[in-house]
Design goal:
mainly alpha, 4 helices, 90% helix, 0% strand
Length: 125
């Protein structure tokens, strides 16, 4: 049985061509899939990673707001406790304010009497 050496090389070459064509076709399919995935990710909307990042940011904001709210509640409770234990202080401030206003009225009357007693030339009119 005689075999032609060039015939054997040609068969091997044809198999290599088929494998090469199959690999090239596979690479084209992979490239098209990668390009399609990139386009889909860029234009179609949010991805899972971006949503997770947004949720983490909202969680952080929520915990910060809760901490601030708790702090404000504590401050309000302290202020309410202080005000409920110090009603005499507020009453005494109201009394001092009333006294101050009456003292101011007396001083204004004294000033008006001094200005009425002064000649107009000294005042600058």
């Amino acid at each position: 049985m005689t075999t032609d050496k060039t015939h054997r090389d040609l068969v091997k070459l044809l198999h290599l061509k088929e494998v090469g064509i199959a690999l090239a076709g596979l690479w084209v399919i992979v490239f098209i899939a990668a390009a399609s995935a990139t386009i889909y990710q860029e234009f179609d909307g949010p991805t899972v990673r971006s949503k997770i990042a947004e949720n983490l940011e909202l969680s952080t904001t929520n915990s910060t707001l809760n901490r601030d709210l708790n702090s404000a509640r504590k401050d309000t409770d302290v202020a309410n406790d202080y005000l409920s234990s110090k009603p005499k202080t507020i009453d005494s401030l109201v009394v001092h304010l009333t006294d101050s206003r009456s003292g101011q009225a007396v001083l204004e009357n004294q000033l008006e009497s001094y200005l009425n007693d002064a000649p107009l030339l000294q005042i600058g009119h």
